[in-house]
Amino acid sequence: MAKYLISFPSAAMVVSDSEREAAGRDAHAAIEEAKAAGVYVFGGGIDEDVPPVLVSADGSVASGGYPWAPALNGGFTVLELPSRDDAVAWAARIARACRCDQELRVFGLDPQS
After folding, report:
1. How does DSSP assign 59-90, residue by residue?
2. What's the whole-model pTM score?
3. Is 28 helix (H, G, I), strand (E, B) or coil?
4. Dihedrals φ, ψ of 110, to 5°?
C-alpha cells in the first residue's frame, strides 16, 4: 500500500462565515471515517501564525522559508491506501467536506524510514 498526501492551500478554502462551521464539522467527520476505515496516518494544518525559519547545515537560522518558493500553508491529510483510485475517492470525500479541491500526491517509499 502507498501513502497519499491530500492537501489544499489556505487560499483554496473560500467558504462563507455561515458555512465555515459546517465545513469544519464535515471535514472532521471525513477524518473520523478514515480513522474508522484504518487508512488514516496523520493530518493537520500549517500554523500560519508562526512564521517559518530556514535552518542551514551549520545550525544558523534565518527568518522566512526559501524566498523563491511559494508559501506552504493550508491543511493536509496522509492516508495509506491500496490504490490510486482509492486515493482519488478519499480526496473527493475530503474535497466535499472542505468545500474546496484537494491536491493528491504519492509519497515515495523510503525503505529506511
Report:
1. S-EEESS-TTSPP--SEEEEEEES-HHHHHHH
2. 0.88
3. helix
4. -115, 100
CATH annotation of 2-47+72-106 = 3.30.70.1060
Asked whether 89 and 3 are in contact (CB, 8 A), the reply is no
Q: What are the helix and strand counts (H, E) for the chain?
A: 2, 6
Kindly report, residue by residue over 61-86, the tens digit of the pLDDT. 999 999 999 989 999 999 999 999 99
Cell of 25: 464539522
Q: Which long-range contacts (CB under 8 A, 24 or more apart) does 30-37 make?
A: 30/93, 30/94, 30/96, 30/97, 31/77, 33/93, 34/77, 34/79, 34/90
Q: How far apart are CA 77 and CA 2, in angstroms?
A: 14
- Beta carbons within 8 Å of 66's beta carbon, 6+ residues apart: 54
Cell output for 70:
511559494
- Report the distance separating Cα 93 and Cα 70, nearest Å: 26
Cell of 23: 465545513
